[in-house]
Amino acid sequence: MSEALLRVEKVEVVYKRVITAVQGVTLSVGPKQIVAILGTNGAGKTTTLRAVSGFLGLDDARVTEGTISFEGRRIENAPPHDIAARGIVLVPERDKVFPNLTVAENLAVPVSRASAAERRRQDEQIYSLFPRLAQLRQRIGGLLSGGERQMLAIAAALTCRPSLLLVDELSLGLAPVVVQDLTRRLLTVRDELGIAILLVEQSAAAALTIADHAYVMENGRIVLDGDREQLKSHQDVQEFYLGQASGERRSYRTVKQYRRSRRWYG
Amino acid sequence: MFRPPPRASGYFRTGYGQDLALVQTKAERISLVVFLLILAGFPFIASPFALDLACQVFLASVGALSLMLLTGYAGQISLGHAGLIAAGAFTTGILAREIHAPFWVTLPASAVTGIVLGFVFGLPSLRLRGLYLAVSTLALHFVVIYLGGEYETKRGFSTGIIVEPPNLAGVSLSGGRFWYFVLLAAAAVSLLICINLLRSRSGRAFRAVHARETVAEALGISIAGYKLLAFVISSSMTSVAGCLFAYYRGFVSVEAFDLFLTIQYVAMIIIGGMGSLLGALLGAAFVTLFPYAIEALLHLLPNVEKLAGDIFAVNYASFGVVMILFLIFEPLGLVGIWHRLQNYFLLWPFKYRPLAGARK
Predict the structure, then answer these.
(1) Among candidates A36, A38, A67, A42, which has minimal Cα distance to A52?
(2) B67 CA to chain A: closest CA distance, Å?
(3) ipTM summary value
(4) Chain A contact present for B229, CB below 8 A
(5) Which of A258, B1, B205, B277 has its Cα between 20 and 30 A from that of A95?
(6) For residue B74, what is the nearest residue in chain A, using CA coordinates?
(7) How far apart are CA B196 and CA A49, in angstroms?
(8) Is there a cis peptide before residue B349, judged by omega within 30 degrees of 0?
(9) Cβ-Cβ contacts under 8 Å for B302 (sequence gap 6 or more)
(10) What is the DSSP letter of A58?
(11) Which of B232, B233, B207, B272 is nearest to B74 (CA)?
(12) pLDDT in tens, A112-161
Protein backbone atom coordinates (compact mmCIF):
# COMPACT_ATOMS: atom_id res chain seq x y z
CA MET A 1 0.00 0.00 0.00
CA SER A 2 1.77 3.10 -1.11
CA GLU A 3 -0.99 5.49 -0.05
CA ALA A 4 -1.08 4.23 3.55
CA LEU A 5 -2.65 6.58 6.10
CA LEU A 6 -0.34 5.55 8.90
CA ARG A 7 3.06 4.04 8.33
CA VAL A 8 5.21 2.74 11.16
CA GLU A 9 8.69 1.91 9.95
CA LYS A 10 11.23 -0.16 11.93
CA VAL A 11 10.30 1.54 15.15
CA GLU A 12 12.23 0.93 18.35
CA VAL A 13 10.92 2.19 21.70
CA VAL A 14 13.08 2.53 24.79
CA TYR A 15 11.66 3.15 28.28
CA LYS A 16 13.57 5.21 30.84
CA ARG A 17 16.54 5.31 28.47
CA VAL A 18 17.47 1.69 29.23
CA ILE A 19 14.66 -0.78 28.62
CA THR A 20 13.92 -1.66 25.01
CA ALA A 21 10.24 -2.52 24.71
CA VAL A 22 9.69 -2.98 20.99
CA GLN A 23 12.12 -3.28 18.13
CA GLY A 24 11.89 -3.19 14.36
CA VAL A 25 8.13 -2.83 14.31
CA THR A 26 6.81 -2.08 10.85
CA LEU A 27 3.15 -1.80 10.07
CA SER A 28 0.77 0.27 8.06
CA VAL A 29 -2.88 1.22 8.10
CA GLY A 30 -4.60 2.19 4.88
CA PRO A 31 -7.55 4.59 4.56
CA LYS A 32 -10.81 3.09 5.85
CA GLN A 33 -8.97 -0.03 6.93
CA ILE A 34 -9.39 -1.87 10.22
CA VAL A 35 -6.07 -3.24 11.41
CA ALA A 36 -5.49 -5.26 14.57
CA ILE A 37 -2.36 -5.89 16.62
CA LEU A 38 -2.62 -9.17 18.51
CA GLY A 39 -0.41 -10.70 21.14
CA THR A 40 -0.18 -11.75 24.77
CA ASN A 41 0.51 -9.46 27.72
CA GLY A 42 3.84 -7.71 27.47
CA ALA A 43 4.24 -8.35 23.76
CA GLY A 44 4.55 -4.62 23.06
CA LYS A 45 1.12 -3.98 21.55
CA THR A 46 0.19 -1.09 23.79
CA THR A 47 3.68 0.38 23.56
CA THR A 48 3.34 0.44 19.78
CA LEU A 49 -0.04 2.16 20.08
CA ARG A 50 1.35 4.67 22.54
CA ALA A 51 4.21 5.40 20.17
CA VAL A 52 1.65 6.29 17.50
CA SER A 53 -0.53 8.38 19.83
CA GLY A 54 2.38 10.27 21.39
CA PHE A 55 1.67 9.10 24.93
CA LEU A 56 5.09 7.50 25.35
CA GLY A 57 6.49 10.76 26.62
CA LEU A 58 4.37 10.55 29.76
CA ASP A 59 6.08 7.29 30.75
CA ASP A 60 9.57 8.58 30.08
CA ALA A 61 9.84 6.55 26.89
CA ARG A 62 10.89 7.55 23.39
CA VAL A 63 10.93 6.29 19.86
CA THR A 64 14.68 5.93 19.47
CA GLU A 65 14.79 4.53 15.97
CA GLY A 66 12.58 4.31 12.95
CA THR A 67 9.84 6.60 11.75
CA ILE A 68 6.12 7.00 12.18
CA SER A 69 4.35 8.97 9.49
CA PHE A 70 0.74 9.97 9.22
CA GLU A 71 -0.66 11.29 5.97
CA GLY A 72 2.92 11.60 4.77
CA ARG A 73 4.15 13.65 7.74
CA ARG A 74 6.47 12.45 10.48
CA ILE A 75 4.87 12.31 13.93
CA GLU A 76 7.18 10.22 16.11
CA ASN A 77 7.70 11.78 19.54
CA ALA A 78 5.20 14.59 18.93
CA PRO A 79 3.07 15.57 21.96
CA PRO A 80 -0.36 13.88 22.26
CA HIS A 81 -2.54 16.97 21.74
CA ASP A 82 -0.60 17.73 18.58
CA ILE A 83 -1.20 14.24 17.26
CA ALA A 84 -4.86 14.47 18.25
CA ALA A 85 -5.12 17.69 16.27
CA ARG A 86 -3.75 15.92 13.18
CA GLY A 87 -6.54 13.37 13.33
CA ILE A 88 -5.28 10.42 15.35
CA VAL A 89 -7.34 9.87 18.48
CA LEU A 90 -6.73 7.25 21.12
CA VAL A 91 -9.34 5.40 23.15
CA PRO A 92 -7.22 4.41 26.13
CA GLU A 93 -7.24 1.07 27.91
CA ARG A 94 -8.64 2.33 31.21
CA ASP A 95 -9.57 5.67 32.82
CA LYS A 96 -11.16 6.68 29.58
CA VAL A 97 -14.14 8.80 30.61
CA PHE A 98 -14.34 11.83 32.89
CA PRO A 99 -16.14 10.52 35.98
CA ASN A 100 -17.18 13.99 37.13
CA LEU A 101 -18.88 15.03 33.90
CA THR A 102 -22.21 13.88 32.47
CA VAL A 103 -22.34 11.86 29.27
CA ALA A 104 -23.39 14.95 27.31
CA GLU A 105 -20.55 16.97 28.84
CA ASN A 106 -18.06 14.19 28.18
CA LEU A 107 -19.01 14.39 24.53
CA ALA A 108 -18.62 18.16 24.52
CA VAL A 109 -15.10 18.15 25.98
CA PRO A 110 -13.07 17.39 22.85
CA VAL A 111 -11.73 20.43 21.08
CA SER A 112 -13.25 21.01 17.71
CA ARG A 113 -13.62 23.96 15.43
CA ALA A 114 -17.06 22.88 14.30
CA SER A 115 -19.85 25.47 14.41
CA ALA A 116 -22.78 25.06 16.79
CA ALA A 117 -25.00 23.71 14.01
CA GLU A 118 -22.35 21.24 12.91
CA ARG A 119 -21.87 20.09 16.47
CA ARG A 120 -25.58 19.56 16.87
CA ARG A 121 -25.58 17.44 13.72
CA GLN A 122 -22.52 15.58 14.97
CA ASP A 123 -24.28 14.91 18.30
CA GLU A 124 -27.30 13.53 16.48
CA GLN A 125 -25.02 11.30 14.43
CA ILE A 126 -23.27 10.00 17.52
CA TYR A 127 -26.50 9.39 19.37
CA SER A 128 -27.84 7.45 16.39
CA LEU A 129 -24.68 5.36 16.36
CA PHE A 130 -24.95 4.80 20.10
CA PRO A 131 -28.64 5.14 21.07
CA ARG A 132 -27.84 3.96 24.58
CA LEU A 133 -25.80 7.12 25.16
CA ALA A 134 -28.78 9.27 24.23
CA GLN A 135 -30.75 7.69 27.08
CA LEU A 136 -27.86 8.33 29.46
CA ARG A 137 -27.17 11.95 28.50
CA GLN A 138 -27.56 13.34 32.01
CA ARG A 139 -25.88 10.44 33.82
CA ILE A 140 -22.40 11.15 35.20
CA GLY A 141 -19.50 9.22 33.72
CA GLY A 142 -18.53 7.69 37.04
CA LEU A 143 -21.86 5.83 37.26
CA LEU A 144 -21.66 4.13 33.85
CA SER A 145 -21.06 0.41 33.40
CA GLY A 146 -17.92 -0.83 31.68
CA GLY A 147 -19.62 -1.31 28.33
CA GLU A 148 -21.26 2.11 28.49
CA ARG A 149 -17.92 3.68 29.34
CA GLN A 150 -16.30 2.05 26.34
CA MET A 151 -19.12 3.34 24.12
CA LEU A 152 -18.78 6.82 25.58
CA ALA A 153 -15.01 6.79 25.11
CA ILE A 154 -15.37 5.79 21.46
CA ALA A 155 -18.10 8.37 20.95
CA ALA A 156 -16.00 11.10 22.58
CA ALA A 157 -13.06 10.19 20.38
CA LEU A 158 -15.31 10.41 17.32
CA THR A 159 -16.34 13.97 18.18
CA CYS A 160 -12.71 14.95 17.52
CA ARG A 161 -13.37 13.93 13.91
CA PRO A 162 -10.36 11.68 13.59
CA SER A 163 -9.26 10.02 10.39
CA LEU A 164 -7.62 7.26 12.43
CA LEU A 165 -9.05 5.85 15.64
CA LEU A 166 -6.73 3.93 17.96
CA VAL A 167 -8.53 1.53 20.28
CA ASP A 168 -6.58 -0.07 23.12
CA GLU A 169 -8.13 -3.33 24.38
CA LEU A 170 -11.70 -2.91 23.28
CA SER A 171 -12.68 -6.15 25.03
CA LEU A 172 -10.94 -5.51 28.36
CA GLY A 173 -13.23 -6.55 31.20
CA LEU A 174 -16.32 -6.73 29.01
CA ALA A 175 -18.82 -9.55 28.51
CA PRO A 176 -18.58 -11.36 25.15
CA VAL A 177 -22.03 -10.09 24.13
CA VAL A 178 -20.96 -6.51 24.78
CA VAL A 179 -17.72 -7.02 22.87
CA GLN A 180 -19.68 -8.40 19.94
CA ASP A 181 -21.97 -5.39 19.99
CA LEU A 182 -19.05 -2.95 20.18
CA THR A 183 -17.10 -4.58 17.35
CA ARG A 184 -20.18 -4.40 15.18
CA ARG A 185 -20.47 -0.71 15.98
CA LEU A 186 -16.83 -0.11 15.11
CA LEU A 187 -17.56 -1.67 11.75
CA THR A 188 -20.43 0.81 11.31
CA VAL A 189 -18.13 3.66 12.31
CA ARG A 190 -15.69 2.61 9.59
CA ASP A 191 -18.37 2.08 6.95
CA GLU A 192 -20.45 5.18 7.64
CA LEU A 193 -17.83 7.72 8.71
CA GLY A 194 -14.93 6.32 6.70
CA ILE A 195 -12.58 6.29 9.68
CA ALA A 196 -9.61 3.91 9.74
CA ILE A 197 -9.19 1.94 12.96
CA LEU A 198 -6.12 0.44 14.61
CA LEU A 199 -7.09 -2.04 17.31
CA VAL A 200 -4.92 -3.57 19.98
CA GLU A 201 -6.42 -6.80 21.26
CA GLN A 202 -5.66 -9.85 23.32
CA SER A 203 -8.87 -11.43 22.24
CA ALA A 204 -7.94 -12.57 18.75
CA ALA A 205 -11.39 -14.01 18.18
CA ALA A 206 -13.02 -10.61 18.65
CA ALA A 207 -10.42 -8.74 16.62
CA LEU A 208 -10.43 -11.17 13.72
CA THR A 209 -14.17 -10.79 13.20
CA ILE A 210 -13.73 -7.21 11.98
CA ALA A 211 -10.05 -6.61 11.15
CA ASP A 212 -9.06 -6.49 7.50
CA HIS A 213 -5.46 -7.08 8.39
CA ALA A 214 -3.69 -8.13 11.57
CA TYR A 215 -0.21 -8.25 13.03
CA VAL A 216 0.86 -10.70 15.73
CA MET A 217 3.45 -9.44 18.20
CA GLU A 218 5.65 -11.44 20.53
CA ASN A 219 8.42 -10.16 22.74
CA GLY A 220 8.43 -6.71 21.24
CA ARG A 221 8.55 -7.81 17.63
CA ILE A 222 6.07 -8.52 14.92
CA VAL A 223 6.26 -12.23 14.18
CA LEU A 224 3.38 -12.71 11.83
CA ASP A 225 1.02 -10.70 9.72
CA GLY A 226 -1.63 -11.28 7.16
CA ASP A 227 -5.22 -10.59 6.26
CA ARG A 228 -8.13 -11.94 8.26
CA GLU A 229 -8.62 -15.24 6.47
CA GLN A 230 -4.91 -15.99 6.34
CA LEU A 231 -4.54 -15.54 10.06
CA LYS A 232 -7.76 -17.33 10.96
CA SER A 233 -6.55 -20.38 9.09
CA HIS A 234 -2.99 -20.14 10.38
CA GLN A 235 -2.23 -23.11 12.59
CA ASP A 236 -0.33 -21.23 15.32
CA VAL A 237 -2.91 -18.49 15.56
CA GLN A 238 -5.68 -21.08 15.80
CA GLU A 239 -3.89 -22.92 18.54
CA PHE A 240 -2.55 -20.11 20.70
CA TYR A 241 -4.93 -17.24 20.09
CA LEU A 242 -8.20 -18.79 19.05
CA GLY A 243 -7.97 -21.80 21.36
CA GLN A 244 -8.72 -24.36 18.68
CA ALA A 245 -6.34 -27.25 19.29
CA SER A 246 -5.51 -29.31 16.25
CA GLY A 247 -4.04 -32.73 16.83
CA GLU A 248 -1.38 -33.05 19.48
CA ARG A 249 -0.69 -29.97 21.62
CA ARG A 250 2.64 -28.32 21.21
CA SER A 251 4.19 -26.13 23.85
CA TYR A 252 3.84 -22.41 23.32
CA ARG A 253 7.51 -22.03 24.01
CA THR A 254 8.75 -24.26 21.21
CA VAL A 255 6.56 -22.59 18.69
CA LYS A 256 7.66 -19.19 19.84
CA GLN A 257 11.29 -20.16 19.50
CA TYR A 258 10.69 -21.65 16.10
CA ARG A 259 8.88 -18.56 14.88
CA ARG A 260 11.53 -16.26 16.06
CA SER A 261 14.39 -18.24 14.64
CA ARG A 262 12.65 -18.46 11.32
CA ARG A 263 12.13 -14.75 11.29
CA TRP A 264 15.43 -13.53 12.65
CA TYR A 265 18.00 -16.10 11.81
CA GLY A 266 16.83 -17.81 8.72
CA MET B 1 -19.46 13.96 42.60
CA PHE B 2 -22.89 15.43 42.82
CA ARG B 3 -25.86 15.17 40.60
CA PRO B 4 -28.72 17.55 40.69
CA PRO B 5 -31.62 15.80 42.37
CA PRO B 6 -34.20 14.15 40.14
CA ARG B 7 -36.32 16.76 38.42
CA ALA B 8 -39.94 17.18 39.34
CA SER B 9 -42.01 14.40 37.88
CA GLY B 10 -44.12 15.05 34.84
CA TYR B 11 -41.59 17.53 33.52
CA PHE B 12 -40.00 16.58 30.22
CA ARG B 13 -37.58 18.42 28.04
CA THR B 14 -38.43 18.50 24.38
CA GLY B 15 -35.42 20.28 22.91
CA TYR B 16 -31.71 20.80 23.42
CA GLY B 17 -32.34 24.45 24.27
CA GLN B 18 -34.32 23.53 27.38
CA ASP B 19 -31.33 21.65 28.70
CA LEU B 20 -29.55 24.96 28.95
CA ALA B 21 -32.17 26.97 30.81
CA LEU B 22 -30.95 27.99 34.26
CA VAL B 23 -34.40 27.86 35.80
CA GLN B 24 -36.21 24.84 34.49
CA THR B 25 -39.45 24.19 36.31
CA LYS B 26 -42.25 26.31 37.68
CA ALA B 27 -41.39 25.26 41.24
CA GLU B 28 -37.82 26.42 40.72
CA ARG B 29 -39.02 29.74 39.37
CA ILE B 30 -41.33 30.34 42.30
CA SER B 31 -38.76 29.44 44.92
CA LEU B 32 -36.16 31.64 43.23
CA VAL B 33 -38.52 34.64 43.29
CA VAL B 34 -39.42 34.04 46.94
CA PHE B 35 -35.73 33.76 47.85
CA LEU B 36 -34.93 37.02 46.04
CA LEU B 37 -37.80 38.79 47.80
CA ILE B 38 -36.49 37.63 51.16
CA LEU B 39 -33.00 38.87 50.27
CA ALA B 40 -34.41 42.22 49.11
CA GLY B 41 -36.54 42.67 52.22
CA PHE B 42 -33.92 41.59 54.72
CA PRO B 43 -32.06 44.93 55.19
CA PHE B 44 -35.28 46.72 56.05
CA ILE B 45 -36.05 44.54 59.04
CA ALA B 46 -32.55 43.51 60.14
CA SER B 47 -30.47 45.14 62.87
CA PRO B 48 -27.21 46.84 61.81
CA PHE B 49 -25.34 43.92 63.34
CA ALA B 50 -27.25 41.36 61.24
CA LEU B 51 -26.75 43.56 58.20
CA ASP B 52 -22.99 43.55 58.77
CA LEU B 53 -23.03 39.75 59.09
CA ALA B 54 -24.91 39.43 55.81
CA CYS B 55 -22.38 41.72 54.10
CA GLN B 56 -19.53 39.60 55.42
CA VAL B 57 -21.21 36.47 54.11
CA PHE B 58 -21.60 38.02 50.64
CA LEU B 59 -17.94 39.09 50.59
CA ALA B 60 -16.84 35.65 51.69
CA SER B 61 -19.11 34.13 49.03
CA VAL B 62 -17.24 35.91 46.24
CA GLY B 63 -13.92 34.64 47.61
CA ALA B 64 -15.23 31.12 48.21
CA LEU B 65 -16.75 30.90 44.72
CA SER B 66 -13.47 31.89 43.11
CA LEU B 67 -11.53 29.40 45.21
CA MET B 68 -14.10 26.71 44.41
CA LEU B 69 -13.60 27.40 40.72
CA LEU B 70 -9.86 26.90 41.07
CA THR B 71 -9.71 24.07 43.59
CA GLY B 72 -13.11 22.37 43.46
CA TYR B 73 -13.43 22.37 39.68
CA ALA B 74 -10.03 22.86 38.06
CA GLY B 75 -8.34 20.83 40.82
CA GLN B 76 -5.52 23.29 41.50
CA ILE B 77 -4.80 23.75 45.18
CA SER B 78 -4.04 27.29 46.25
CA LEU B 79 -2.98 28.66 49.62
CA GLY B 80 -2.53 32.17 48.30
CA HIS B 81 -6.13 33.20 48.69
CA ALA B 82 -5.65 35.69 51.55
CA GLY B 83 -2.70 37.11 49.61
CA LEU B 84 -4.92 37.71 46.60
CA ILE B 85 -7.60 39.42 48.66
CA ALA B 86 -4.85 41.54 50.20
CA ALA B 87 -3.53 42.35 46.71
CA GLY B 88 -6.96 43.66 45.67
CA ALA B 89 -7.40 45.59 48.91
CA PHE B 90 -3.95 47.16 48.76
CA THR B 91 -4.29 48.08 45.09
CA THR B 92 -7.49 49.88 46.02
CA GLY B 93 -6.03 51.42 49.16
CA ILE B 94 -2.84 52.67 47.51
CA LEU B 95 -4.58 54.05 44.42
CA ALA B 96 -7.25 55.76 46.49
CA ARG B 97 -4.70 57.21 48.85
CA GLU B 98 -1.95 58.26 46.44
CA ILE B 99 -3.84 59.55 43.43
CA HIS B 100 -7.38 59.75 44.85
CA ALA B 101 -8.54 57.29 42.25
CA PRO B 102 -12.32 56.80 42.13
CA PHE B 103 -13.81 53.32 42.48
CA TRP B 104 -14.29 52.88 38.75
CA VAL B 105 -10.50 53.01 38.47
CA THR B 106 -9.60 50.96 41.53
CA LEU B 107 -12.05 48.15 40.76
CA PRO B 108 -10.63 47.26 37.31
CA ALA B 109 -7.12 47.95 38.62
CA SER B 110 -7.67 45.31 41.33
CA ALA B 111 -8.93 42.88 38.71
CA VAL B 112 -5.81 43.48 36.61
CA THR B 113 -3.57 42.97 39.65
CA GLY B 114 -5.36 39.67 40.21
CA ILE B 115 -4.90 38.63 36.59
CA VAL B 116 -1.16 39.34 36.69
CA LEU B 117 -0.64 37.59 40.03
CA GLY B 118 -2.81 34.65 38.93
CA PHE B 119 -0.77 34.23 35.78
CA VAL B 120 2.61 34.42 37.53
CA PHE B 121 1.63 32.16 40.43
CA GLY B 122 -0.28 29.83 38.12
CA LEU B 123 2.91 29.04 36.21
CA PRO B 124 4.20 26.55 38.83
CA SER B 125 0.98 24.55 38.37
CA LEU B 126 2.24 23.45 34.97
CA ARG B 127 4.94 21.45 36.71
CA LEU B 128 3.79 20.98 40.29
CA ARG B 129 0.87 19.10 41.75
CA GLY B 130 -0.88 18.71 45.09
CA LEU B 131 1.16 19.63 48.12
CA TYR B 132 4.05 21.04 46.09
CA LEU B 133 1.72 23.38 44.25
CA ALA B 134 0.13 24.44 47.55
CA VAL B 135 3.54 25.44 48.92
CA SER B 136 4.42 27.42 45.81
CA THR B 137 1.14 29.37 46.04
CA LEU B 138 1.93 30.07 49.68
CA ALA B 139 4.81 32.20 48.36
CA LEU B 140 2.20 34.49 46.78
CA HIS B 141 0.75 35.20 50.20
CA PHE B 142 4.07 36.21 51.71
CA VAL B 143 5.13 38.33 48.74
CA VAL B 144 1.92 40.37 48.84
CA ILE B 145 1.93 40.74 52.62
CA TYR B 146 5.57 41.79 52.60
CA LEU B 147 5.01 44.43 49.92
CA GLY B 148 1.87 45.70 51.65
CA GLY B 149 3.71 45.93 54.99
CA GLU B 150 6.63 47.77 53.37
CA TYR B 151 4.25 50.30 51.85
CA GLU B 152 2.54 50.87 55.18
CA THR B 153 5.80 51.53 57.05
CA LYS B 154 7.44 53.61 54.30
CA ARG B 155 4.45 55.91 54.00
CA GLY B 156 3.92 56.05 57.72
CA PHE B 157 0.52 54.33 57.78
CA SER B 158 1.78 51.88 60.34
CA THR B 159 -1.73 51.07 61.51
CA GLY B 160 -3.22 50.79 58.04
CA ILE B 161 -4.53 52.76 55.09
CA ILE B 162 -7.82 54.60 55.44
CA VAL B 163 -9.99 54.31 52.35
CA GLU B 164 -12.66 56.94 51.81
CA PRO B 165 -16.07 55.61 50.80
CA PRO B 166 -16.54 55.85 47.04
CA ASN B 167 -18.60 58.74 45.79
CA LEU B 168 -20.72 59.08 42.75
CA ALA B 169 -21.53 62.55 41.39
CA GLY B 170 -20.50 64.12 44.66
CA VAL B 171 -22.64 61.82 46.82
CA SER B 172 -20.68 59.70 49.23
CA LEU B 173 -21.86 56.10 49.03
CA SER B 174 -21.96 54.60 52.45
CA GLY B 175 -24.41 53.10 54.89
CA GLY B 176 -25.26 49.52 55.76
CA ARG B 177 -28.19 49.08 53.41
CA PHE B 178 -26.31 50.46 50.44
CA TRP B 179 -23.41 48.09 51.00
CA TYR B 180 -25.76 45.21 51.58
CA PHE B 181 -27.11 45.59 48.06
CA VAL B 182 -23.70 46.24 46.49
CA LEU B 183 -22.19 43.13 48.05
CA LEU B 184 -25.30 41.07 47.31
CA ALA B 185 -25.00 42.12 43.68
CA ALA B 186 -21.29 41.26 43.69
CA ALA B 187 -22.01 37.79 45.06
CA ALA B 188 -24.86 37.26 42.58
CA VAL B 189 -22.73 38.35 39.62
CA SER B 190 -19.88 36.09 40.76
CA LEU B 191 -22.31 33.19 41.05
CA LEU B 192 -23.68 33.80 37.55
CA ILE B 193 -20.17 34.08 36.12
CA CYS B 194 -19.24 30.77 37.75
CA ILE B 195 -22.40 28.96 36.66
CA ASN B 196 -22.04 30.03 33.07
CA LEU B 197 -18.30 29.53 32.95
CA LEU B 198 -18.71 25.97 34.18
CA ARG B 199 -21.26 25.21 31.48
CA SER B 200 -18.96 26.53 28.77
CA ARG B 201 -16.11 24.89 26.92
CA SER B 202 -13.61 26.27 29.45
CA GLY B 203 -15.61 24.94 32.40
CA ARG B 204 -15.76 21.45 30.94
CA ALA B 205 -12.04 21.66 30.20
CA PHE B 206 -11.35 22.63 33.84
CA ARG B 207 -13.22 19.61 35.12
CA ALA B 208 -11.72 17.33 32.48
CA VAL B 209 -8.20 18.43 33.44
CA HIS B 210 -9.09 17.87 37.08
CA ALA B 211 -10.37 14.34 36.54
CA ARG B 212 -8.07 12.87 33.90
CA GLU B 213 -5.29 15.04 32.65
CA THR B 214 -3.98 12.56 30.10
CA VAL B 215 -7.35 11.75 28.56
CA ALA B 216 -8.05 15.46 28.32
CA GLU B 217 -4.79 15.94 26.49
CA ALA B 218 -5.56 13.07 24.12
CA LEU B 219 -8.79 14.80 23.22
CA GLY B 220 -6.86 17.88 22.21
CA ILE B 221 -7.24 20.09 25.30
CA SER B 222 -4.35 22.41 26.07
CA ILE B 223 -3.70 21.55 29.71
CA ALA B 224 -1.28 24.39 30.36
CA GLY B 225 -3.63 26.95 28.85
CA TYR B 226 -6.65 25.92 30.89
CA LYS B 227 -4.73 25.64 34.16
CA LEU B 228 -3.46 29.18 33.71
CA LEU B 229 -6.92 30.36 32.69
CA ALA B 230 -8.37 28.88 35.90
CA PHE B 231 -5.74 30.69 37.98
CA VAL B 232 -6.26 33.97 36.17
CA ILE B 233 -10.06 33.98 36.42
CA SER B 234 -10.07 32.89 40.04
CA SER B 235 -7.42 35.41 41.07
CA SER B 236 -9.07 38.35 39.39
CA MET B 237 -12.39 37.52 41.07
CA THR B 238 -10.61 37.25 44.40
CA SER B 239 -8.85 40.58 43.96
CA VAL B 240 -12.13 42.26 43.14
CA ALA B 241 -13.46 40.83 46.41
CA GLY B 242 -10.42 42.43 48.06
CA CYS B 243 -11.26 45.79 46.49
CA LEU B 244 -14.84 45.60 47.78
CA PHE B 245 -13.51 44.57 51.18
CA ALA B 246 -11.31 47.69 51.28
CA TYR B 247 -14.24 50.01 50.54
CA TYR B 248 -16.63 48.19 52.84
CA ARG B 249 -14.27 48.26 55.81
CA GLY B 250 -12.88 51.67 54.84
CA PHE B 251 -9.53 50.48 56.08
CA VAL B 252 -6.71 48.28 54.75
CA SER B 253 -4.02 46.74 56.90
CA VAL B 254 -1.81 43.68 56.55
CA GLU B 255 -3.07 42.33 59.87
CA ALA B 256 -6.43 41.55 58.31
CA PHE B 257 -4.91 39.12 55.81
CA ASP B 258 -3.10 36.49 57.81
CA LEU B 259 -2.73 32.83 56.94
CA PHE B 260 -5.77 32.04 59.05
CA LEU B 261 -7.87 33.83 56.44
CA THR B 262 -6.53 31.47 53.78
CA ILE B 263 -7.33 28.51 56.00
CA GLN B 264 -10.84 29.88 56.48
CA TYR B 265 -11.39 30.03 52.73
CA VAL B 266 -10.08 26.51 52.24
CA ALA B 267 -12.36 25.46 55.10
CA MET B 268 -15.32 27.10 53.37
CA ILE B 269 -14.99 24.98 50.26
CA ILE B 270 -14.31 21.80 52.23
CA ILE B 271 -17.15 22.30 54.71
CA GLY B 272 -19.44 23.51 51.95
CA GLY B 273 -18.66 20.58 49.67
CA MET B 274 -15.97 20.28 47.01
CA GLY B 275 -17.05 20.69 43.41
CA SER B 276 -20.29 22.51 44.08
CA LEU B 277 -21.08 26.21 43.77
CA LEU B 278 -23.93 25.85 46.27
CA GLY B 279 -21.32 24.31 48.56
CA ALA B 280 -19.14 27.42 48.24
CA LEU B 281 -22.07 29.62 49.29
CA LEU B 282 -23.10 27.39 52.19
CA GLY B 283 -19.48 27.11 53.30
CA ALA B 284 -19.00 30.87 53.15
CA ALA B 285 -22.07 31.41 55.31
CA PHE B 286 -21.11 28.67 57.75
CA VAL B 287 -17.51 29.72 58.29
CA THR B 288 -18.36 33.42 58.51
CA LEU B 289 -21.18 32.97 61.01
CA PHE B 290 -19.54 30.19 63.02
CA PRO B 291 -17.46 32.40 65.40
CA TYR B 292 -20.49 34.56 66.16
CA ALA B 293 -22.57 31.47 66.86
CA ILE B 294 -19.92 30.15 69.25
CA GLU B 295 -19.76 33.50 70.98
CA ALA B 296 -23.53 33.59 71.36
CA LEU B 297 -23.50 30.06 72.76
CA LEU B 298 -20.79 30.98 75.25
CA HIS B 299 -22.91 33.84 76.54
CA LEU B 300 -25.57 31.32 77.49
CA LEU B 301 -23.16 29.70 79.93
CA PRO B 302 -23.15 30.79 83.56
CA ASN B 303 -20.19 32.82 84.81
CA VAL B 304 -19.42 33.91 81.29
CA GLU B 305 -17.41 36.93 82.50
CA LYS B 306 -14.60 34.68 83.61
CA LEU B 307 -14.35 33.22 80.12
CA ALA B 308 -14.17 36.57 78.32
CA GLY B 309 -10.42 36.37 77.81
CA ASP B 310 -10.56 32.89 76.37
CA ILE B 311 -13.19 33.51 73.77
CA PHE B 312 -10.71 33.61 70.87
CA ALA B 313 -9.06 30.40 71.93
CA VAL B 314 -12.42 28.68 72.24
CA ASN B 315 -13.32 29.95 68.78
CA TYR B 316 -10.15 28.67 67.14
CA ALA B 317 -10.38 25.33 68.89
CA SER B 318 -14.01 24.70 68.04
CA PHE B 319 -13.35 25.74 64.44
CA GLY B 320 -10.63 23.08 64.27
CA VAL B 321 -12.92 20.48 65.81
CA VAL B 322 -15.69 21.25 63.32
CA MET B 323 -13.23 20.94 60.41
CA ILE B 324 -12.11 17.52 61.63
CA LEU B 325 -15.67 16.36 62.19
CA PHE B 326 -16.62 17.37 58.66
CA LEU B 327 -13.61 15.63 57.13
CA ILE B 328 -14.42 12.42 58.95
CA PHE B 329 -18.20 12.27 58.99
CA GLU B 330 -19.32 14.39 56.06
CA PRO B 331 -16.60 14.60 53.41
CA LEU B 332 -19.24 15.77 50.93
CA GLY B 333 -19.83 18.81 53.08
CA LEU B 334 -22.98 20.79 53.74
CA VAL B 335 -24.11 20.29 50.17
CA GLY B 336 -23.98 16.53 50.72
CA ILE B 337 -26.36 16.90 53.66
CA TRP B 338 -28.59 19.16 51.57
CA HIS B 339 -28.75 16.63 48.70
CA ARG B 340 -29.54 13.79 51.08
CA LEU B 341 -32.32 15.84 52.56
CA GLN B 342 -33.70 16.62 49.11
CA ASN B 343 -33.60 12.99 48.09
CA TYR B 344 -35.27 11.96 51.32
CA PHE B 345 -38.32 14.09 50.58
CA LEU B 346 -38.31 13.31 46.86
CA LEU B 347 -38.32 9.57 47.43
CA TRP B 348 -40.52 9.52 50.51
CA PRO B 349 -41.99 7.10 51.62
CA PHE B 350 -39.27 5.04 49.92
CA LYS B 351 -35.66 5.00 50.92
CA TYR B 352 -33.90 4.34 47.63
CA ARG B 353 -34.60 4.85 43.99
CA PRO B 354 -35.87 1.65 42.35
CA LEU B 355 -33.72 -0.48 40.09
CA ALA B 356 -33.59 1.13 36.65
CA GLY B 357 -35.96 -0.67 34.30
CA ALA B 358 -37.86 -2.36 37.12
CA ARG B 359 -41.14 -0.81 36.00
CA LYS B 360 -41.77 -2.53 32.72
Answers:
(1) A67
(2) 18
(3) 0.73
(4) no
(5) B277
(6) A100
(7) 38
(8) yes
(9) none
(10) G
(11) B207
(12) 667 778 888 888 888 999 999 988 888 888 899 999 999 999 999 998 88
